[in-house]
Amino acid sequence: xxxxxKEGRKDARKxxxxxRKDARKxxxxxxxxxxxxxxxxxxxTKDKKKTAKKEKKAEMEKIKKSGVTGKEKRxxxxxxxxxxxxxxxxxxxxxxxxxxxxxTEKKLDIKQAETKKDExxxxxxxxxxMVPASEEPAPxxxxxxxxxxxxxxxxMSVNNDWWTLRGSKVGNNPCSIKISQNNVAILLYxxxxxxxxxxxxxxxxxxxxxxxxxxxxxxxxxNSITSVRVNPFIIELNVTVVTGxxxxxxxxxxxxxxxxKEIKEIIEMTNDFLERQNxxxxxKINDLEYRIDEKRWHLDKKKNDKRIKIPASxxxxxxxxxxxxxVVTDALGISDSGKRGNYFAVGVKRKSIxxxxxxxxxxxxxxxxxxxxITQVESLAKTFVHELFHHIGDLEHPIDEPVEDxxxxxxMYNMMTQGNAANIKLLHLTNSQIExxxxxxxxxxxxxxxxxx
Length: 453
Hints:
Gamma-B Crystallin, domain 1; alpha/beta
């Protein structure tokens, strides 16, 4: 599922507008043609009636001149009138049948025009990555929506995204849901195009009433879901690597090639984490620039430090701005979503990195000291994801460690816990954290490129 730039969205709107305009013109021409055909039919019927009337009159005159009288004359006139009546009846039947045929053809032509328009709009969306291509078969996810509570009424299997449920089997009002498989997730939105309030669900579960919190639902979501999402949103990144005045790369990266290799690994680890969480989010780099700036080579978390503000030229509208610096004072990273910054930064230089066992505990050496073992890129990936969710989801550090959705293989630590030294493979996000993030994403300007317009 791709994303669109501002220009791409504008072009898509123009193309869809043109497709709708062509459809309106075609339907207008169809109605004009039908109007002319009806007019011709009325005139033809009128002419037939006029001809039949003349024929009747001529037959009556013929009888009159024949000299026939009495009962025979009356029988002949009766026969003429009967024939005239049959002709009028045939004329009316023919008119009715032709009118019905015109009406049927009109409906068919208008339907074809609508289908042509819908197919063109679908092509536009597919060409621009706004919907999954129809040629790619969607995998079975085991997600079923029901029109009524308690899994009653019409139902539909959800294996792909629906930007609007209008016209689906359950309409804009599913009331219950079954998820029969683990490691799948769905986003339920109250507005079309994946906007408005959202409910996030993952893993195997049955909710008999989406409006009832006691049954796993959420107040206000019964009979009001308009769009659903099962494929990840793509968050595009505008990446800046800050170098010193002498071109020194942050964190001791020996070369730009090595820097880009590690950044690529960070993105891969981030996407692996997001996929393991069934977060319905993925990230990709749109642009990467190197910028010499001694002042921002080292970022300070103090609010009044002017170095926290980054130049407008570093930022890219419609994308999440990421900065790799050498050091962030008293932290591994920092997120700034305010007017001063609107970015998040990761300090590349690490003091020490502890090796953890399967339960997230540090492994001491013979003298009781922690063994340095986790790679720098693993540590950077953990900080990257942590700051990413601060930035896009405005998530806070949890006070209490959540216990939902824990991994059976070992203890899972919350990604947003401050100071957490766990390996990224031992970290997780809760349902509420992912839901809150998607709720914030729906309101951010840079996320609008991911919605069908």
